[in-house]
Amino acid sequence: MKLTLKIWRQDHPRTKGRLVTYQLDDVSPDMSLLETIDLLNQDLILAGAEPIAFDHDCREGICGSCAMYINGRPHGADQASTTCQLYMRSYQDGDTLTIEPWRANAFPVIRDLMVDRSAFDRIIQAGGYISVNTGSEVDANTIAIPKERAEAAFADAMCIGCGACVAACKNSSAMLFVAAKISHLAQLPQGQPERQQRVVKMVAQMDAEGFGSCSNTGTCAAVCPKEISVQAIAQLNREYLQAKSYR
Fold first, then answer.
1. Are 236 and 178 in contact (CB under 8 A)?
2. Residue where a domain terminates, one of 81, 110, 139
3. Nearby residues of 210 by Cβ (< 8 Å), 6 or more positions away
4. Are residues 121 and 88 in the same domain?
5. What confidence category does residue 131 fall into, taking pLDDT thresholds of 50, 70 and 90?
6. How high is the pLDDT of residue 47?
7. Would you call 49 exposed, middle or buried from its count of C-beta atoms within 10 A (0-12, 13-18, 19+)?
8. Which secondary-structure segment (H or E) carries 223?
9. Mean pLDDT of all residues in the chain?
């Protein structure tokens, strides 16, 4: 199949970017989008041109690094999937795909389709963990957790930190990401000792990184590849208000 790719090219964070048009004539419908870019990069290298820079790792929808804006939607048109899980059979012969990096001040462009998402790492470092003394493995049944709570915690823990929620939000809010990291620990016994200080520190770091406020439109949940619910944001708000009232 033939495809037209309009891809964002930017040499440096401080240089002006632009969309560059490429034509591909031998794309297999069974190729993923990342494999399609690989094919394009092979042609560019053979022609002596600079290949397109983009992030990738597992290519199995696990790592969250393959962050791209495709035809105006984070990760493309497929629901509950990442960019690496987007296959060309989702498009028709002759289609045009516009591929851009995430658009957020807190995610500055490094080069082409690569953005710096280390702001997420700093939010996690601020409190998204449990401080425990490691030792021998504890039996799984030592601490009884109700099934409903365990399932809810696991659902929030599915967040892979890809940043699609930030890219989709008109305010570039990171609330869904932070909420998922806070709420899943808040629902488990292991997360109780640091529960109050965790939410205060992580929200403070989120604000310091320059993310916008929650727009309450639900676009974050609509594009989340792991379908994290906006209920996590409600949980985050409750956790924050309770923590601040006890201080």
1. yes
2. 110
3. 105, 106, 119
4. no
5. confident
6. 97
7. exposed
8. helix 219-223
9. 94
Q: Rounded to whole angstroms, what are the CA distances from 139 to 10, 30, 144, 187, 189?
A: 51, 44, 11, 19, 15
What is the reported pLDDT for 136? 74
Q: Give me the residue label for tokens 């696991």.
A: 154
The domain of 27 spans: 3-110
Kindly indicate the confidence band of residue 171, based on its pLDDT and cuts at 50, 70 and 90. very high
Q: How many domains does the chain have?
A: 2
Contact 157, 220 (CB under 8 A): no
Q: Is the pLDDT of residue 137 over 80?
A: no
| Residue 111, strand partner residues | 114
Cβ neighbours for 125, distance < 8 A, ≥ 6 positions apart: 205
The pLDDT, as a whole number, for residue 125 is: 96
Cα four-point dihedral sign 228, 175, 216, 77 = negative
Per-residue model confidence (pLDDT) at position 134: 67
CB 87 within 8 A of CB 3: no
What span, in angstroms and rounded, lies between the C-alpha atoms of 9 and 111? 7
> What is the mean pLDDT of the segment spanning 98-121?
96
Are 61 and 122 spatial neighbours (Cβ–Cβ below 8 Å)?
no
Q: How far apart are the first and last CA of the chain?
A: 61
CA distance linking residue 132 with residue 201, whole number of Å: 18
Same domain, 177 and 79: no
